[in-house]
Amino acid sequence: MPDEVLSQSEIDALLSAISSGEMDANQLKEEEKDKKVKVYDFKRALRFSKDQIRSISRIHDNFARLLSTYFSAQLRTYVHIAVASVDQIPYEEFIRSIPTKTILNVYSVAPLDGRIIFEFNPNIAYAMLDRMLGGKGQSVNKIDTLTDIETTLMSQLFEKALDNLQEAWGTVVEIDPILEDFEVNPQFLQLVSPNETVVVVSLDTAIGESSGMINICIPHVVLEPIIPKLSVHYWMQNENTKERKPEEYESISKNIEKARLDLSVILGETTITVEDLLFLDSNDTIVLNKHISDPLVLEIDRVPKFHVQPGKRKSQVAVQIIHDIQGGEVDDE
User: Fold this and answer.
1) Residue 202 — very low, low, confident or very high, per pLDDT cuts 50/70/90?
2) Which parts of the chain span the membrane according to its record (predicted)?
3) Per-residue pLDDT for 332 more than 60?
4) Nearest-5° angle of CA 118, CA 120, CA 121?
5) Judging by beta carbons within 10 Å of its beta carbon (0-12, 13-18, 19+), is residue 201 exposed, middle or buried?
6) CATH class of 261-332
7) Which residues contact 155 (CB under 8 A, 6 or more apart)?
8) Peptide bond between residue 111 and the one before it cis (omega within 30 degrees of 0)
9) Of 39, 115, 243, 294, which is the most exposed, with the fewest CB atoms less than 10 Å away?
């Protein structure tokens, strides 16, 4: 184990404590000789690094924002969803932590192996159902007596939310989530072995006066093929090496060539008083600031670009470009 490096302030505090007698130098030497033992629980194996957990948290921060917008639109009320925590725990501990009667949705996430679980707290699930049926969003816990209609409505609402999950994970891997099972008893769900490590993302959810948690359980077997992509180094390297393909440049160029521009030719400008403007009449003459022999200015989307001279082409008024306008912000763009 490498030696720990102390900062200058820590060194000064240590010397001050020794000199004042608050700390005994001999006692300090004895403590250094003692072996440092770190407790490790093999039943609670940590298979994801802090860096990878942060990446998963960042993905689900985006997912929470997308889900808030989706549910707010579907339920026609303000819904707030935010990531509360991201932990890695044994699957058995996750099952014990959720209510004995709750709303469980099981999704496959092809092309990844395994399945993930969305657990909706009954308070949240019934507040959503109440809003869908025209209520105020009040929660009534009656999981034991779910009707077929209630089950179908909930399943349809949660299934349509999968587009947000697909978009949130799109920065790492393209997945095709599909709702495979709807369950109310967690004891009937044995996706992986009890000691298998899972990542549990807890989303703090509020719908009107009702609040609760949405828990997402992602087994290690699901994330194993993409673990290298959850590293910050991979994200940074991917950003630095991202280059457009030649066909992409060609497609962009063709689209730009079809873009329409607003061209206008300025004959001249002048300034008059409001009084003169009010008394203007037919046959009055307004003198512009251009001499008849001066070139005119052609503007592209209100930006001066060329000097031109007026003329005629066949039966239409036209201008002929003399030269482009140099300098200024036009060339900088």
Assistant:
1) very high
2) none
3) no
4) 145
5) buried
6) mainly beta
7) 105, 179, 182
8) yes
9) 39
